[in-house]
Amino acid sequence: MEAPEISTIAATTIRPWGSFTVLEEAPGYKIKRIEVKPGHRLSLQMHHHRSEHWIVVSGTARVTCNERIELVHSNQSTYVPPCASHRLENPGVIPLVIIEVQNGQYLGEDDIVRFEDDYKRVGQA
């Protein structure tokens, strides 16, 4: 059995809330390093085709997943299932750094459905 081709990207994308770097991508998964500026948050969103595991490396994350809101600290993690509305926020005063592991059949950025966004990016990707 042949091993799947792994692509190491390490390209950083800047967003109004911070940045993300794709560390590795292969069929069925993608690994990102996400940094969220203090006081900023990502859109309230969902994905049809992927789940996400978030591991906090530094800082504190306020995570919304459907109706649940929780604080996740350094060396803790949380899981976002497919089709769950979710949001990542940095309520702290230092940058929030997480590692995100996406799993699913389709991992494109256009699988984002935005419900609310501080930066006026509502709708698809």
Describe this structure in words.
By secondary structure, the chain is mainly β. It has one domain (11-124): Jelly Rolls (Sandwich). The protein has no helices and twelve strands. It has strands at 11-15, 18-26, 29-36, 44-46, 50-58, 61-65, 68-72, 77-80, 86-89, 96-104, 113-116, 123-124. It has a six-stranded antiparallel sheet, with no helix packed on it. The chain has a three-stranded antiparallel sheet with strand order 4-11-12, with no helix packed on it. It has a three-stranded antiparallel sheet with strand order 7-6-9, with no helix packed on it. Strand 11 and strand 12 (123-124) form a beta hairpin. The chain is globular and about 40 Å long. The model has no long low-confidence stretch (mean pLDDT 92).
Features:
125 residues, Jelly Rolls, 6-stranded antiparallel beta sheet, 0% helix, mainly beta, globular
In short:
With 125 residues, this protein is mostly beta strands. The chain is 0% helix and 54% strand. It has a single domain, classed as Jelly Rolls (Sandwich), CATH 2.60.120.
